[in-house]
Amino acid sequence: MSGSYRAEVLKLRKRSAVWVLFGAGLVLSLIFGYLLPYLGYVTGDENPQTDGVPRSEILRGMLPERVMDNTIGGYPVFAGALALVLGAIVVGGEYTWGTLKTILTQRPGRGAVLASQFLGLATMIAVWVLGIFAACAACSVGVAAAENTAMDWPGLTAVLEGLAGGWLVLMTWCLAGAVLAVAFRNVALPIGLGVVWILGVETLLAGVVSSLLPDLEFLSDALPGANAGALVFSVTGMVAADAPPGVRDAVGGGRALLTLLGYCAIFALLAAWTTRRRDVT
Amino acid sequence: MDALVEVTGLTKRYGDTLAVDGVDLTVLPGEVYGFLGPNGAGKTTTLRILTGLIAPTSGEVRVLGGMPGQSGVLGRTGSMIESPAFYPYLSGLDNLRLLAEYAAVPRRKIDEVLDLVDLTDRARDRFSTYSLGMKQRLGVAAALLKDPELVILDEPTNGLDPAGMRDMRRLIRELGSGGRTVLLSSHLLGEVQQICDRVGIIAAGRMVAEHNVEDLRAEQELVVRATPRDRAQSVLAGFGAVHRYDDTLRVQVDPRRAAEVNRVLVEAGIEVSELRSTERALEDVFFELTTEEKADVG
């Protein structure tokens, strides 16, 4: 199992697409977390985007005390979509390249191969989360130094909770991509379906349910995106007015945590069940 | 001698399609076994079953005394099924490294197998830049990485140029003479004739023959050149099956009856300009067997 895990990490480490996705997530986090707010801050009242928001509030949003907001605020939607793409290309690539048959004719069984793949993905997601955190922390230090303000960091527990919550959000979407890739034995279709779901269908469903079918809100509150947003909302402690798209207190933090863990377990079991039963042609 | 591969009544059905139909197959230790058949005959499906990639619909399969796909069996089997499949963004060396990790093989084996297939110089190049021949050789290197008792190769010379085919055949022959057991599929008769000890012929999913290559070839027949040929053919039909081959007739009859055949033809007013015995080519045997099978199925 450890050998299979090392093999998976080698594959991920050397695959440029993995780093391109990470780079996209990082750049988007920095653009929306620091670059655009900072431009709004320096252009002050002349910027219509920040009309009505006090400049001190804009600045506060970029300081180290809010680093977790900027690190994981985008995870439920855009970084989640990138994580889904990661799961789909890593697992789906084995089918499109035919490499699944190559690795399944080595020593480990199918369950061990899949478990190693998921462990490798979990490791890479952790690298993503830590990388984005480090970049956001560096930016917040830069902003604080440039504006000559105090550097108050969130407590260690808050940082760890934020990082763990962010990792779980991305892992849920990554496993969703992986299970779709196993189901369709492909890369393109899982990415298409998954991204449409994350970026469109969930938001649309939540909107329709809350405006037209409020009795069915319990269903929309059970969706992965709603729980991802709720977990991020809970661990960052952000206020609703500051929350980025997809982050809202649809359900409590504890329930969101359990629901996402449940989704991870279901996705992993479905992928394992399908992989073990199906012929590799 | 215990067989390394024992297959009895193997059947694989995909919906209404019967890909493999009651195949029996035995591969003995140390032999190079050729699994011969036309494209679509069921060779790859059978080999996929032997490596645990697909499950049989029915039948019994034992590989190295265990079930196909079991970890212990896979660890002693090296295989290349269909085209060699590797990660295109990794070098040949990295592809072998990760397979060595999966298979728990020491890294020194990588250099050994790269050297064996003559890929050391290009080992650090990306797999996607390899020629077809290099990809096949890397596939064989991967199959040998575990120093396996049983090597399963599916059409290993597919797409190779003549020099590549010659090298690959020499390598396979060396594997066989080195005590390894090799099961290879091919649709190339000459290839099987050159490198295999025994051959199983499959057509339309059914095993139609399993013999030593020499036994199959040793069946002899008479070659007759006579005029008029049509009359000669009908007369010769009284001795055995007659096939036209270019401008000669080939009669499946014991060559010791050549004098009798000659007398009967002459008495029938047929001019005989050539009469000799010949060893049948494996190609003839193959076509005969697979054509009969098609006719039976049809």
From TrEMBL, chain A:
GO cellular component terms listed in the entry, alphabetical order: plasma membrane
Pfam families the record matches: ABC2_membrane_4
Transmembrane spans: 16-36, 72-97, 118-144, 164-184, 191-213, 256-275
GO molecular function, one term: ABC-type transporter activity
Keywords tagged on the record: Membrane, Transmembrane, Transmembrane helix
Highest taxon above the source species: Bacteria
Keyword flag Metal-binding: no
PANTHER family: INTEGRAL MEMBRANE PROTEIN-RELATED, MEMBRANE PROTEIN
Protein name: ABC transporter permease
Organism, scientific name: Kribbella turkmenica
Taxon lineage: Bacteria, Bacillati, Actinomycetota, Actinomycetes, Propionibacteriales
TrEMBL record, chain B:
The UniProt record lists the keyword Zinc: no
InterPro entries: AAA+_ATPase, ABC_transporter-like_ATP-bd, ABC_transporter-like_CS, P-loop_NTPase
Domain ABC transporter span(s) in chain numbering: 5-229
MF GO annotations: ATP binding; ATP hydrolysis activity
Pfam families: ABC_tran (PF00005)
Keyword Lipid biosynthesis belongs to the record: no
Keywords noted in UniProt: ATP-binding, Nucleotide-binding, Transport
Superkingdom in the source lineage: Bacteria
UniProt record similarity statement: Belongs to the ABC transporter superfamily.
PANTHER family reported for this sequence: ABC TRANSPORTER, ATP-BINDING PROTEIN
Protein name (Swiss-Prot/TrEMBL): ABC transporter ATP-binding protein
